[in-house]
Automatic annotation (TrEMBL):
SUPFAM superfamilies documented for this protein: Actin-like ATPase domain
Protein name according to UniProt: Carbohydrate kinase
Residues in Carbohydrate kinase FGGY N-terminal domain copies: 4-248
PANTHER family hit by this protein: L-XYLULOSE_3-KETO-L-GULONATE KINASE (PTHR43095:SF3), SUGAR KINASE (PTHR43095)
Length: 507
């Protein structure tokens, strides 16, 4: 029976999912990957460890599928976008990979955005540079680690590194190529983009870009030995996880805003023409002549996970020992808090925000009679409010009348209803738990002719588990809370840098 392998390497977990051709997951395996934070604002990972963890996950998925590896007809990979994974001129890792949660380049980006460069960048590349953009990180390495900079042979993304480990072929795809150095109109690399950031010395290091569904290599013997895959299995170029998530969730289309509540607050919509604005990135779509417009910030469900890790550790250990779920345990507390009035608001800016890198997280309106449920409610509302900021921006630029929600929070009906009420839009969830991996698998299937195109999702017609309609009364109440949420953020904007300066060596 033919099947497909989708690899999805996120910021904390790398996973392998084997799918039937109708989108049914046959087997899933995950491995945690250690984040290394040697200094404040530095978020890195060991590239060799990432590959070993991914290879282990692939092997486990193959074994758990109870099917021969020869059934897997193609492989597609996706992973967190932005950040950089550098190779030297011999093709070996040049230090640790830098994740998209990294904000070491904050001062560089602030300087760029205070001058004319930001306007020049958006006109040329379709986006204002941000702290985890390859342009910003490479500029930081140029200034702070010149010896390392001089040794750069190749600039890859996370999924490109995994693809190299699978095939031995260096390259990227169109969606990933557009993170910093392509012309928004031609959709191809532009030397002027490198010159804009004073990175012209790296023209040799940009990897060739293929179509996301283009077969670019096959699994090598060495990779087959590590993963359990068959040597010679075709591997496609893959794609940026933001795009893969929208594709796999059935939200990759015009008129739909795809909302991915993961580590990042991802909000995107497709267009047939480039339209630029400081509030979103206008990047290459999967097909030439299409653009994926992304309004994002590192401020979504990672805040919820942080709260669980830091303040619910004992409960997590207890329920895991009993093979239970911390989410099931906390569900009644959250539902009870959602049903009663509350003054508690939370800004979900532990790792970043739409208000700049200096912003930080915080509770407001918290008083002695509030409990853990009230705090969890505020965190979830804050996550939804932050998505609303991005969705509102996209709705001003594009005609989006409905939303497609994916990410771990979409498994909780109360939270999905919260998103519908906050966004004041119908919100549809997908039956596919692993949307990004399925998006990568769709590209793999198209690459070997099993689908006519990556968007030819055979499960698209049945992907809607349910559509949640906004409750008009609750939407009115959330509108009031959202306005206060924004007013506090705007009032805090001049104070956040002062807070950061209280511990200058940690920023």
């Amino acid at each position: 029976m033919p099947s497909l392998l989708g690899i999805d390497s996120g910021l904390t977990v790398t996973k392998a999912v084997i799918f039937d051709l109708d989108g049914t997951p046959l087997a899933t395996a995950r491995r945690k990957v250690t984040q290394v934070m040697p200094h404040a604002r530095h978020v890195e990972r060991d590239m060799a460890e990432l590959w070993r963890a991914t290879a282990d996950a692939i092997r486990e998925a193959v074994e758990r599928s109870n099917r021969p590896a020869s059934d897997i007809k193609a492989v597609g990979a996706t992973a967190h976008g932005d950040g950089i994974y550098l190779l030297d001129r011999e093709g070996q890792p040049l230090g640790r990979g830098i994740l998209s949660l990294d904000s070491r380049a904050r001062a560089i980006v602030d300087r760029w955005c205070e001058g004319a460069l930001a306007d020049q960048s958006i006109a040329l590349t379709g986006q204002v540079p941000h702290v985890s953009a390859p342009s910003a990180l490479l500029a930081w390495i140029r200034d702070m680690e010149p010896e390392r900079f001089a040794r750069i042979g190749h600039v890859l993304s996370c999924k490109d590194w995994l693809r190299l480990c699978l095939t031995g072929v260096i390259g990227t795809d169109r969606t990933e190529a557009s993170t910093s150095f392509t012309n928004v109109k031609t959709q191809e690399y532009d030397p002027d983009a490198l010159r804009l950031f004073d990175l012209h010395d790296l023209s040799h290091a940009l990897p060739p870009a293929a179509g996301s569904d283009e077969v670019v290599g096959t699994v090598t013997r060495e990779a087959a030995d590590l993963t359990g895959l068959c040597e010679g299995t075709p591997v496609v170029a893959g794609l940026h996880d933001v795009t893969a998530s929208a594709l796999g969730a059935g939200g990759y289309d015009e008129g739909i805003v795809a909302v991915i509540a993961g580590t990042y607050s991802i909000n995107e919509t497709l267009s047939a023409q480039p339209r630029v604005d400081r509030r979103w990135f206008c990047r290459n779509g999967i097909s030439p002549g299409t653009w994926n417009n992304m309004s994002i910030s590192p401020a979504s469900s990672a805040n919820y996970e942080w709260f669980l890790d830091q303040l619910c550790a004992a409960d997590q250990a207890s329920v895991e020992a009993a093979s239970g779920s911390i989410h099931a345990l906390l569900g009644p507390e959250i539902d009870a808090a959602l049903a009663r009035p509350s003054t508690v608001l939370f800004h979900p800016y532990l790792f970043g925000s739409p208000y700049g890198a200096a912003a930080s997280a915080g509770f407001f309106g918290l008083q002695g009679w509030h409990d853990r449920g009230d705090m969890l409610r505020a965190i979830l509302e804050g996550i939804a409010f932050n998505h609303r900021i991005h969705v509102d921006a996209l709705r001003e630029g594009f005609a989006s009348t409905r939303a497609r929600l994916a990410g771990g929070v979409s498994r909780n009906p109360s939270v999905v209803q919260l998103f519908a009420d906050v966004l004041a839009l119908p919100v549809t969830t997908s039956q596919t738990d692993e949307a990004a991996a399925w998006g990568a698998a769709l590209c793999a299937g198209a690459g070997v002719g099993l689908y006519a195109e990556p968007c030819g999702d055979p499960s698209r017609d049945i992907a809607s588990a349910r559509t949640w309609l906004p409750d008009p009364g609750r939407s009115v109440e959330y509108e009031k809370r959202f306005r206060v949420f924004k007013e506090i953020a705007e009032a805090m904007s001049p104070l956040w840098p002062k807070i950061a300066d209280l511990a200058p060596h940690s920023t």
